[in-house]
Design goal:
single chain; DiS-bond_isomerase_DsbC/G_N_sf; Nuclear Transport Factor 2, Chain: A; Glutaredoxin; disulfide bond; 2 domains; elongated; signal; 238 residues; 41% helix; redox-active center; Thiol:disulfide interchange protein
């Protein structure tokens, strides 16, 4: 019994000190990388990568790699040859994922088509050309509920248009009139809007461009995504 307890104590102490050493090494690398990148770049964390000798470096939501000395910063993808799995791509997707429940649907323009069973969130700027292209494509979707969050990030005119759309008696119609038909929004713009909340959410979750789409599993699709890719994603969620 005493021998068993001694063995367990040895295993525990070995594991503890090994974990402590790894954590200490990762902190040292983080400090070294941060020092070299400067105060304007925030290193979120450093952890061991799946490849021996490499460490993952998180800068914002971007994945980089470095060596044990922190001397090099490597930009690229790790692909497991046996399976063909892109480890970096999967890691990036996980980092970009959000909780669907974190989205405040009261801050969005809600559109229901068909039975509305499939759900999609879109972050859009009214002056974004790719957003207009996406909106035209989204007209092809059926049985979907789309939550459009206006995030006027392209300048003062985007802010003004977003206010006019939000303050319209029918925000959805005002939005579609502009995005699809090119009819500029008009009317009052001094009502209470969720625009500041939407912009804050975008900054918090690293939404730096429009359009950006989110599905109910939290996955993020940036850019004017093809309808075929949206349908494929919906199918994977069933």
């Amino acid at each position: 019994m005493i021998k068993l307890l001694s063995a367990l104590a040895f295993i525990f102490s070995t594991f503890f000190f090994s974990s402590f050493a790894h954590a200490q090494a990762e902190q040292q690398i983080k400090t070294e990388i941060q020092k070299k990148l400067g105060a304007n770049v925030k290193v979120r964390g450093v952890s061991a990568a799946p490849v021996p000798g490499l460490y993952e470096v998180l800068v914002g939501n971007e994945v980089f790699y470095t060596d044990a000395s922190g001397k090099y910063l490597i930009q690229g993808e790790i692909i497991e040859l046996a399976s063909g799995k892109n480890i970096t791509e999967q890691r990036q997707a996980d980092l970009n994922r959000i909780k669907w429940t974190d989205l405040n649907q009261a801050n969005a323009i809600k559109t229901v088509r068909g039975n509305g069973s499939r759900q999609l969130a879109v972050f859009s700027d009214p002056n974004c050309g790719y957003c207009k292209r996406l909106e035209k494509s989204l007209q092809q979707l059926d049985n979907v509920t789309v939550y459009t969050y206006l995030v006027p990030i392209l300048g003062a005119d985007s802010v003004q248009k977003s206010k006019l759309i939000s303050c319209a008696s029918d925000p959805y119609k005002a939005y579609m009139d502009w995005m699809i038909n090119g009819i500029a929004p008009s009317g009052k713009s001094d009502c209470s809007t969720p625009l500041d909340k939407n912009v804050t959410f975008a900054k918090t979750y690293g939404i730096t461009g429009t359009p950006t789409l989110f599905f109910i599993d939290g996955s993020r699709f940036p850019g004017a995504v093809q309808i075929s890719d949206i349908e494929k994603k919906f199918s994977s969620l069933k």
